[in-house]
Amino acid sequence: MSGALLVGGTTSDAGKSLIVAGLCRALARDGVRVAPFKAQNMSNNSAVTLDGGEIGRAQALQARACGLEPDTRFNPVLLKPGGDRRSHVVVRGRTVGEVGAVDYQQWRSALSGIVADELASLRRDFDVVICEGAGSIAEINLRATDIANMGLARAANIPVVVVTDIDRGGSLAHLFGTTAVLDADDQALVAGYIVNKFRGDPSILAPGLEMVRERTGRPTLGVIPYTDGLWIDAEDSLAAPVGRRVGGPRPPSTGRRRLTVAAIRLPRVSNSTDVEALACEPGVDVTWVDDATAVRGADLVVLPGTRATVSDLAWLRDRGLAEALIERAARGGPILAICGGFQMLCRRIVDDVESAAGETAGLGLLDVDVEFAPEKTLREFDGHAYDVPVRGYEIHHGRVVRSAEEPWLRDHRTGPEGARRGAVFGTHCHGALESDAFRRTYLREAARLAGVVGFEPDPAMSVADVRLAQLDLMADLVTEHLDMPSIHGLIADGPGRLPTVISWLGDHLETDRRA
């Protein structure tokens, strides 16, 4: 088999990332040399590649599904929102500037050549490339400069399957309307549909899907059932709402004390996937929160990373969360702060780069000063803490320039990292909690500091195994519920010339007018 396929969506968060991961995993298990590709991603969840570049976290997960290490080719353009209207632009793994929504339209024509080159490189090196679209393929106001959806599909002559999340409602109209608003040449590349997160009896849905086929000329290639067990590596903010418990179904209680974790849902949270390693633990309950009461009441509080340290710090103060964190630290309640969260807990923040706010007072829970540098730190972390190994990665502009605190971690190459004062822990290292021995040791200490008696992490729990099981589950779902022979045919044969939806609509409107 040789070729490519683009998985587009009717909306953001329709399930494109996990469908791509499932297809990649299923093909890799069959011995196909397959790679993922997302031309342009907008996400603050990112990962570091082996050469020190930066790509979207979802593409790193998809690479794992293929049995590959993260590669900047898998996501050549990454937008990291720092506010409602401006984003950092990462090209081929490196930050190249900051743009607003209007400015970015002018960038896209230049970026289209980079996207085309990276896709061509992957198609030379792999048998199959499974591409992921961005947002909705029906954003026709952006079509002229599109590099991720139908613009990519038409430039590379790739067939498109469209995913819709039926759990949100309106999917049949979404499928018809999404296809109908495209121009004829784009419509010709849309080969079929996938319905995601369906609950109930498929026979009830079948007549509706047949009507969609009659109106569009395109089949539904499968219906993926709603599955509680899928929860890792959320792509964007829609997937991590306040009040949502992180993780899949909890195992039955063993009678031992559980550890409750409150993860503060910052407005510009980044690398929120850090908390998923905690949620993998059978005895740990992790919930996203944004209120002071939850911060005061949890056994452990996690302050995650952010793409806007200074403005999210102001948000903490406005909502009373800063005061709750200070009170918590004063009574010895454990706090774990990562990257931007770590910077907020410091005494002094000097930021002329990210926010241009100059000097700002931090919460002062750690006697540390941070200054932002124009050059972003992008590197893998390989070190230890508690006499056990720690692996992770760093992505940050803020750098520690003074610390009176005990370092928490140590990198074998760069030396001390992070800081600790009593029950307050801070680090720039993402992914450290995926190191199983380190996570278990830290959780034991956090439980002790919180006065939780009877809690013990599962000695057999492996985050890597959980992630692999999630990928295999997604592969099993697509293999069982999608028309895989048709998917294989689309990949191998490319797009056929399919009818335009608007012609069907026009015929019926004309019939109605005459009547």
Automatic annotation (TrEMBL):
One GO MF term: ABC-type vitamin B12 transporter activity
Biological process annotations from GO: cobalamin biosynthetic process
Pfam families xrefs: CbiA, GATase_3
Active-site positions on this chain: 339, 430
CobQ/CobB/MinD/ParA nucleotide binding domain boundaries: 7-231
Domain CobB/CobQ-like glutamine amidotransferase per the UniProt entry, residue ranges: 260-437
InterPro entries linked to this entry: Class_I_gatase-like, CobQ/CobB/MinD/ParA_Nub-bd_dom, CobQ_GATase1, CobQ_N, CobQ_synth, GATase_3, P-loop_NTPase
Keyword Cell membrane assigned: no
Protein keywords: Cobalamin biosynthesis, Glutamine amidotransferase
Alphabetical list of HAMAP family matching this protein: CobQ (MF_00028)
Similarity remark: Belongs to the CobB/CobQ family. CobQ subfamily.
Protein name: Cobyric acid synthase
Species this chain originates from: Gordonia neofelifaecis NRRL B-59395
Gene coding for it: cobQ
